[in-house]
Each structure stands twice: as structure tokens, then as C-alpha cells.
Amino acid sequence: MTARTVLQATDIQRALTRISHEILEANRGAADLVILGVPTRGVFLAHRIADIIASIEPGTIVPVGSLDVTMYRDDLLDQPTRASSATDVPVAIDGSTVVLVDDVLYSGRTVRAALDAVTDLGRPKSVRLAVLVDRGHRELPIRADYVGKNLPTSHAERINVHLVETDGTDLIEIAGESE
Amino acid sequence: MRHLLSTADLARDEAIGLLDSSEDMATTADRAHKKLPALRGLTIVNLFFEDSTRTRISFEVAEKRLSADVINFAAKGSSVSKGESLKDTAQTLTAMGVDAVVIRHGASGAAYQLANRGWIDVPVVNAGDGTHEHPTQALLDAYTIRKRVHGSSSRGKGLDGLRVTIVGDIAHSRVARSNAWLLTTLGAEVTMVAPPTLLPHARESFPVVMESDLDAVLATNPDAVMMLRIQKERMHHAFFPSEREFSQLWGLTAERFARLSERTLVMHPGPMNRGLEICSEAADSPQSTVIEQVANGVFVRMAVLYSVLTGSEA
Q: Does the keyword Ligase apply (chain A) (predicted)?
């Protein structure tokens, strides 16, 4: 099993900073933004983006939370039982612009589940998607609005995202049968 | 987890996993839209051979919150009154395409039989079997204690170092049995208090301390006191001279309640016999968790149903 590093800590930091600027640009400021991370790593990325936005636009506080999508997945009967995670949405999302944050966008099925989960929470004005890595191979008509890095991969490969909060270091690597 | 029949065979990790999952289920309770789609398309039958209000409704609410289709079966008014056996009743229901069975039965071991005899091939959840076990009640009790003690930082924690006293009709109590195993597995020290006639016969098989002097045990300031219901329907002999005597010696009277530390939780699985095993002062106090236990029962049952019905082995 070979693993090659494709993003270092500084690359991740730059990508998140750019995504934060893009979110602010598209939203014309931080008004009505709610940033929701998909557990586990999406939640930490969501907090980082909220912190960066607060540093770009001093005085703004963007509500940030976690949105567990386990109960909305379409593969609950085919996989070993999945443990759920906490959902913590600090504000009512009606009328807001929700930015979903996840680490890797792959089949799109997690995002599909997340959209259903958002719908059960309220009716936001719009929902956007930010991901650190887009590795392709979509199985549903879903795309990200903000992408840290496009990493074309084969199905046989794995993308390992390490974050300081969960793994002690910031690093993204591709593992597996890279020709 | 394939079935939930007993708390005795739950490992600590499994039990904590169920409690954590229950916390996630609880976050839906204060939403406008309370349902989750996890069990959509699955059918669950609640097979109740014994009367029950709160357990049956709690399971039904839990099933509906997870979007399952629910069939309620009560033995009264069914073919059981024509003499149909448990095996035939269960096979008839599963032949109609039921995906899981929740069973309450007066015979100890009924849930185990249903799960292990090869009669049916779906997950079985024990909702109380005779005087044997009531595992979801123990899980909701453990959840309630953990939540009160650890608050928002309860995830991942057990009940290590906590002292829980269970008082009353231990011998007939499936709640006491399930709690004895589960609370001990989670690290709590359990003491059971009852008149000698209402303590179980095989005392050495329980991982708990058995006492008969309630006042001596309460003087040690336990973290929680769980009062059990006096089960008149299971008492075919005279186990104590009179209700009045029972209440004076083993009831949580106003006088005993006043001596309890303010941080001792007062628990009761319901339905309460007010004035017999528990006084109203205790039942309605801020230390009382009786209403929370009912609310938490739904979350715990959601977690159990999710666990037995999802996964590739299910």
C-alpha cells in the first residue's frame, strides 16, 4: 500500500482561506450565513471556515454547527450498522444561506442525505456545498460550489484526510493502487 | 446487534454505543419535524401478550419517529385467546412480511425462544418477559442517570463510581434484573434493598449487594435511588404482612425522602403506586427523574431499533 501526500498543512490552510473568501464574495458578506459541517471532519473544517470568515470580516460571527446525516443515508441496510454523530444546529435555518462542509466529495450520496437532513430542519433560502477535496466519480447529479482541490482518482484509491483536530496533523494523501 | 434480549450479554462498548446513539436520537425531539427516515419501508410488529401502556406506546413512538410502519398486536381479542401458540402467532405475523418483532410476554424467556428457536428469522427486541428482563427499561434508566450526572459531556461515558440503590419487589422485577447487569457493566455499584421474602433466590448470581435495611443503605447517600413498583399481579402469596408495613419499612416515605441528599436522584419505572412504594413529595420533586425516564425511553428505543434493523447482518 503506497500513500503519497498531495496536500500539506499550508495547502489546506490556503484552500480554506480561498473558500472562505469565495463564500463571502458569493454571499456579498457574512449576513444570514450558517455553516454546517458533516461529521466527523466536516465539522472541524466548518469551524475553521467560520473562524477565517470572522478574521476577514472583523465583528461578524457566523453560526456554525454539525449536521449528522447517518439517519438519511440510502445504504443503511447494506453496510454494517453505522454509528451516528451529534447534530448541533445553533440557529433556525429558515431564510438563511446554509453552507454544507465536508472533507471529501465522492459519490455525492452523503450530500444527498445532508440535503434531506437540512430539509427536515427548515427551509433555507439556499444551500451551498464546500468540500476540501473533490475526487470525482459522482453517482448523483450533485456538484460542489467551493472546492479546495480537485483530485482525479481511481475507485481503487483512497483519499485520507488528516486534520489536527482528529489526527494530530494536517495532511491529505492518496493511498492504494496508483498505477 | 442482531437482537436485544437481555442486558447480561451487552458488552460495555455496546451499551455505551447505544446510549450515545440515544443522545443523537434525542436531538430530534425539540424539532418541528421529529421524524428520521432511517427505517422507512420496514415493518415492526409490537407483540404484546401482557398489558402495557407506556412501554408499548414508547416503542410505537420510537418506531414512528424512525419512519417504520407499525403493527400493534395485543393478545386480547386475537387468535391467542383461541389457543394459538407463540410460535404460530409469530410465524403468522412474519409471514406477512414483518421485519422485526418487539415482544412483551408474561413468560420468562419468551423473547429468547422467539429469537433462538428458528421459528422466525427477524430481529427480536425484548420489551419485558415475565420476571426475567426488561432491557430497554434498564437502558433508559442508565441513560437518565448518565444525562443527569454528566450533562452535555455524557457522550462516551459509563456510570463509573456511581452508587445506585434499587428498592422494592426485586424478586418479581425484570427491571431490577436488567438494571443489575447493565448498571454494573457500565461501572456502577448496585445495591438491592427488599424484604427478605422479595429478594431473589439465587443471590450469588447477581453482581450486586443485597440488603434488607433501607435506612442503613440510604444513610450512605447513594447517587440514585430507584423505587420499584409493587407488582400485585405477580404476587400469588403473601410476601409482606400489609401494604402499610411495606410502605413504612421499604417505601420512600416523605420522612425518608427528607433525609436524602439533594443530589440523590429519585427514579421509578412507573406506573407508580403513590403512597405505597413512593410518596408524592419524592415523585414530584426536582430530584425525581420519573418524567425524564419516560421521555428518554423513546430515544433509547429508537437507538435499539436502529441498531437491530440496520447493518448488513440484519
A: no
Report how many domains make up chain A.
1
The DSSP bridge pattern shows strands A171-175 and A158-162 to be antiparallel
* Rounded Cα distance, B150 and B114, in Å: 37
| CATH numeric code, B12-134+295-309 | 3.40.50.1370
Q: B128-137: buried (b, 16+ CB within 10 Å) or exposed (e) per residue?
A: bbbbbbbbbb
Is A119 inside a domain boundary? yes
ipTM of predicted complex: 0.90
Instruction: Check residue A140 and give its pLDDT.
Output: 98
DSSP state of A71: G
Note whether residue A161 is domain-resident: no
Domain B136-293 classified CATH 3.40.50.1370?
A: yes
Interval A46-102: pLDDT, tens: 999 999 999 999 999 999 999 999 999 999 998 899 999 999 999 999 999 999 999
SS (H, E, C) B149-180: HHHHHCCCCCCCCCEEEEECCCCCCHHHHHHH
- Under a CB-based contact definition with an 8 Å cutoff, are residues A50 and A35 in contact? yes
Q: Could you tell me if B39 and B62 are in contact, meaning their C-beta atoms sit under 8 angstroms apart?
A: no
Q: How big is the A-B interface in CB pairs under 8 Å?
A: 55
- Please report the pLDDT score of residue B314 as a whole number: 39
**Contact between chains at B307 and A81 (C-beta distance less than 8 A):** yes
Per residue in B243-266, pLDDT tens?
888 889 999 999 999 999 999 999
Domain ranges of chain B: 12-134+295-309, 136-293
Chain A residue with CA closest to B2: the answer is A81
Residue A172 lies in a domain: no
Cβ atoms of A137 and A153 within 8 Å: the answer is yes
Q: What is the average per-residue pLDDT within B95-123?
A: 95
| CB atoms B314 and A86 under 8 Å | no
Q: What is the largest CA-CA distance in chain B?
A: 56
Q: Are A129 and A99 in contact (CB under 8 A)?
A: yes
Q: Residue A16 sits in a domain of what CATH number?
A: 3.40.50.2020
The phi-psi region of residue B270 (left if phi > 0; otherwise alpha if psi is between -120 and 50; otherwise beta) is: left
pLDDT at B241: 75
| Predicted confidence (pLDDT) at residue B211 exceeds the cutoff of 90 | yes
- Asked whether residue A134 is assigned to any structural domain, the reply reads yes
